[in-house]
Amino acid sequence: MAAVVATSDLRRPAVFAVETVAVALCYYAAGRLGLMRELVVEGAVFTPVWPPSGVAVACLLIFGLRSAAGIALGALLVILSLTAFRPVVLCTVAGNTAAPVCAYLMLRKVGFRTDLARLRDGLALVFLGALTAMLLSSTTGVGLLVAIGKLATDSFWHVWLAWWVGDAMGVLLVTPVLLLLPALRRPPPLARWKEAAGLTLITLGVVPLATHSPVSLLFLVYPLLVWAALRFRLAGSMLCALFTSVLATIAATDEVGPFAGLTRVEVMIKLQAFNGTMALTALLLSAVITEQRNTRRSVERACQELVEVLEHLTAGEPEHGRPVKETDRLHPRDNPRSP
């Protein structure tokens, strides 16, 4: 028994170390992907969508607070890939770690469920996990740039807004997709695969046209989001939204299509407004549809149970509604009229 306990005690630090390294590598990989496309606002470089914030919130919701160490390590690796180590770097690491931890604590406080099967879960992720919690990282990061003299004071709000929206978009677009992975089940039937293939082919044709056409055709994306949400719920709508956001970000950073001829600030505003409305539409519409389907199934199960109870209660009644006499309910041995 002592040997078993000792082995268990040794495994816990090993498992924690493996999880920490895995989370850090995922965070770092997401950061490198995010840095592939950048915008410049008031002389500061930022990413329109910061995927590591979504990775961090998803890891905390799946694995718990023990993921915070991996998030901090991943944030440090991303920063060190851009600049040399200095003590002020630790402040940025602290802000990038504290923001998703704050999101996790607030979501737990309101009873957030990772399946996003309720409208309240979608609203909590939007307003608490994305918009509120990410204020911490943007304020810390931009405030640090102003404090060390790398950013002018009059440019604070423009850069702060870009940083905040980028972190929030990472949570809205990446976190729901990652939360779906542990819930993957057996594949759907062949008929659903055919519909999914059709939706995928149409999306691959319409989205590049909408995001790169000189004519403003971004509105063509929303029917696809509605179709994906109605038929494939959160998995379909969020994957469609994420793919569209990637192509829209590429078009914005290249200043082509609907983003051509705009100033840097106008490109940022148009891109973030599009990404935000698209993510909200996909997330909240999917949550509403899933909640309504679950409610309908609950009502159907309750009706079925009620029918079974009524059938059980009426199973002993005579035919044609003939009333049962008191003497008929007695056992033949106890009936005085029986021979």
TrEMBL record:
Pfam families: MASE1. Residues 316-339 are annotated as: Disordered. The keyword Transmembrane applies. The keyword Hydrolase does not apply. InterPro entries: MASE1. Residues 317-339 have a biased composition (Basic and acidic residues). GO terms for cellular component: plasma membrane. It comes from the Bacteria. It is a multi-pass membrane protein. Residues 21-293 form the MASE1 domain. The chain crosses the membrane at residues 14-35, 55-80, 87-107, 127-148, 160-184, 196-222, 234-253, 273-290. It is found in: Cell membrane. Keywords: Cell membrane, Membrane, Transmembrane, Transmembrane helix. This is Membrane protein. It comes from Streptomyces aurantiogriseus. The lineage of its organism: Bacteria, Bacillati, Actinomycetota, Actinomycetes, Kitasatosporales.
